[in-house]
Amino acid sequence: MSSRIRFHLDEQVKLLIARELRRRSIDVTTTVEVGLRTQSDEAQLNFICQEQRVLFTQDDDFLKIASCTNNHPGIAYCKQGTRSIGQIVESLVLIYEVYTPEEMVGRVEYL
């Protein structure tokens, strides 16, 4: 497992967030980049588990999935429309700086 958190951004997340995280040298993938656009939530979950990436999502379906299992590398959630892009980036950077990948396993962090 990597010593630093690596993120994966769900399909509806603005690409500007990925760009800003990368500008801060944070490893991030997006659903579109890895070819998972329009794929099921289960396919997304399989990807983050296989790649050991913390999922950032604004889709509350992942909260339902997380309530049934803690077998995932972590989820960061923000209800759509409640935070600016800058606030989301700052929150994800804080998660990156504070938590290890091991500490995020099975955890849901609300932004």
Distance between the termini: 24 Å
Query: How much helicity do the residues have?
Result: 40-55%
Low-confidence stretches: none
User: What's the CATH class label?
Assistant: Alpha Beta
Q: The CATH topology, please?
A: Rossmann fold
Strand content: 5-15%
Which CATH architecture? Answer: 3-Layer(aba) Sandwich
Number of strands: 5
Tally of separate domains: 1
Q: Note the main sheet.
A: 5 strands, parallel
> Residue-averaged pLDDT, rounded?
92
What is the radius of gyration computed over CA atoms, rounded to a whole number of angstroms?
12 Å
Give the spatial strand order of the biggest sheet.
2-1-3-4-5
- What count of helical segments does DSSP give? 5
Shape summary: globular
Helix-strand pattern: EHEHEHEHHE
Sheet/helix structural class: alpha/beta
Q: Notable features of this structure?
A:
41% helix; alpha/beta; five-stranded parallel β-sheet; 14% strand; globular; Rossmann fold; single chain; 111 residues
Could you explain the architecture of this structure?
Helix 3 (61-68) links the parallel strand 3 and strand 4. The protein has a five-stranded parallel β-sheet, sandwiched between helices. The chain has helices at 15-23, 41-51, 61-68, 85-98, 101-104, and strands spanning 7-9, 28-30, 54-57, 75-77, 108-110. It is globular, with a radius of gyration of 12 Å. It has a single domain, classed as Rossmann fold, CATH 3.40.50. The model has no long low-confidence stretch (mean pLDDT 92). It has five helices and five strands, in the order E-H-E-H-E-H-E-H-H-E. 41% of the residues lie in helices and 14% in strands. It is an alpha/beta fold.
